[in-house]
């Protein structure tokens, strides 16, 4: 709305300009990181479905990042996107830990719902401690008000809030999603025989 003289021109620079030039490579880096995480988990669990359940936690982390940025008045930037790429590798750790226990309980003959409940009860404390130490390690930078810290603060916000949201939803959504998915999958005859004998 400002009327400028004819000799004055305007241009978008700074973070917006950097985002325009780097967004494509950042999207590629995010997609590549998610793909590599999926491939590693597929080889570890020897399943294509279970890694998909774990990958479901990544959008939950992104939801927490968006909420944190909104609450603290920050916008999407290259630094924030780097934090999101970090989250793609961080949040799956707790999901892998939880799913590993669920599979162990299933091997003991428990139903999907009971195995998920047992896993949440037994893994709640280790997951809580792991998340707490990560957040506490980043808390000083999150509370720092110096000019130098402002550059990295959006990255810390994206990681901290994303990790918080992902952890809460992992403990609630992932077990329910696993149980629902197992209910609609056809059961193998061999597994049914073992469960019945148990």
Give descriptors for this structure:
single chain; 7 helices; disordered C terminus; 198 residues; mainly alpha
Structural description of this entry:
The chain has 198 residues and is mostly helical. 82% of the residues lie in helices and 0% in strands. It has seven helices and no strands. The longest helix has 38 residues, at 147-184. The chain is elongated. The protein starts with 14 loop residues before the first helix and ends with a helix.
Walk me through the topology.
Layout lengths: L14 H31 L3 H7 L1 H16 L5 H30 L4 H32 L3 H38 L4 H9 L1
Helix pairs in contact: 1-2, 1-4, 3-4, 3-6, 4-5, 4-6, 5-6
Which value, in Å, is the CA radius of gyration? 22 Å
Low-pLDDT runs of 5+ residues are: 188-198
Question: Which quaternary structure do these chains form?
Answer: single chain
Mind summarizing the main beta sheet? none
Estimated helix fraction: over 70%
Give the class from helix and strand content and strand pairing.
Answer: mainly alpha
- Structural shape: elongated
Number of strands: 0
Number of helices, counting only DSSP H or I runs of 4 residues or more: 7
- Mean pLDDT over the residues: 79
Percent of sequence in beta strands: under 5%
- Termini separation (Å)? 75 Å
- Pattern of helices and strands: HHHHHHH
Structure summary:
By secondary structure, this protein is an all-alpha fold.
